[in-house]
Amino acid sequence: MKIGVVGKGGVGKTTISALLARALTERGRRVLAVDTDSNPNLGLSLGLDYGATEALPTVPRSIVVGSRGDLTVAELMADYGTQTPSGVTVMSALRVNEAAAGCTCGGHATVRSLLGEALETETDDTIIDMEAGIEHLSRSGGTLAHADVLVLVMEPSLKAVITARRTIVLADELGIAAWIGVGNKVSENQQDLLARLCAQNDVPLDVVIPASNEVAQADREGVPLPSTRAASVWTAVNSLTNHLLQPAQT
Ligand SMILES: Nc1ncnc2c1ncn2[C@@H]1O[C@H](COP(=O)(O)OP(=O)(O)OP(=O)(O)O)[C@@H](O)[C@H]1O
Ligand SMILES: [Mg+2]
Q: Model pTM?
């Protein structure tokens, strides 16, 4: 499965990408997590320390991935994939290493070409932790044009839900077949508000991940959420995992 994790800034895309990647790995699947943030830190959430995260190689911009391109998928994984303590392979695709080096469109095109390839020989699931906003659905032919499914992450706020709504319109135009609405950082007294905002804006709300001090604390320390903590968060992440695996199983 090729999964794009998208949403407004700060809603929890990186957090959920890491938790989902770990949940899929625990089910015995080979998972590649691609960090497309120009200021990447997905590696930390998957158990790399700061030094190892800084040392992650960045996929070169404007290369075409595939047997007729610059690098095959296997070569790309071997050269730019890094195994993390969580068992997930992480890849940094859009890191900005130099000031004034120009825009990252070439990096987006590279990720697009990677998703356009058959990845089954190397990985079962590829998770793209997307940078904030919706530009990735328009630039370079749509970075996520070949995604199978989008995970629309939303905080309980109108702006986050509207971002999901706009994303759905663009995803539909791109021909992306499926999306799943995920509420995140939802405290008990905000559940009704989020459900109402989603219903009013025709955005699905399939899974709700609670607000959790333990998630926030792990993130502050730059370490993965321990699998023994925040049981309600893991229950929700497993529910998301089930949702994603459902179509593949039928
Ligand atoms: N379920 C949660 N409960 C509490 N805090 C959370 C939860 N999910 C994420 N957070 C916190 O929200 C903040 C933003 O999370 P994260 O970095 O994952 O968002 P993002 O969407 O990837 O942000 P960006 O748009 O900058 O890439 C972090 O401080 C994180 O710890
Ligand atoms: Mg992020």
A: 0.93
